[in-house]
Design brief:
Bound molecules: glycinamide ribonucleotide
Strand order of the largest sheet: 3-2-1-4-5-6-7
Helix content: 25-40%
Number of strands: 7
Number of helices: 6
Distance between the termini: 10 Å
Order of helices and strands: EHEHEHEHEHEEH
Length: about 190
Amino acid sequence: KIKAAIFASGTGSNFEAIMETEQLVCDIALLVCDKANAGVIVKAEKYGLPTFVFDAKQFPDKAAYEKAIIDRLEESEISWVFLAGYMRIAGATLLDHYEGRIVNIHPSLLPSFPGIDAIGQAFRAGVKTTGVTVHFIDEGIDTGPIIAQEKVAILQDDTEETLKKRIQNVEHQLYPKVINQLLQTK
Ligand code: GAR
């Protein structure tokens, strides 16, 4: 079975959705997290999953912490990386090492509303339709070849909270499905 790692910085609802997926075609073998107090770490403990927690400030630069991440990934024989709310831009060190094998999920229809608070951005912009994108990453912020998108309508009586809930529900369905489709043929 292919071994994959999830990178996350926050709550970990997407992490949990992936972990709860029966018949996932890969083994999630490691969580990588850049925030020592992130909720996702507690969730990983619940599954007995090994975690690599790092503090970027303890390293001289991005290349140095990404090198440390890669060493840990190699130790666990990780061949694919799934970003699930990992709020850092990948650098050349990581991108070169896992070329074409790093996937991200983002809560908008990219290229609209990249970056932080994509749901709030779409809500405030007053668009009628937003959604979820799963894509390969490159050196940009939420850019790179799109793999799958799903639309979510913004309803007349939506609040940012109700919209967020519907978008996250779509994320939790879509991400495991896309992971399986991507890896099935590998
Ligand atoms: C998710 O909505 C994910 O799409 C988003 O962060 C959230 C993490 O939630 N990612 C980005 O905005 C990437 N630019 P979670 O920790 O509950 O999975």
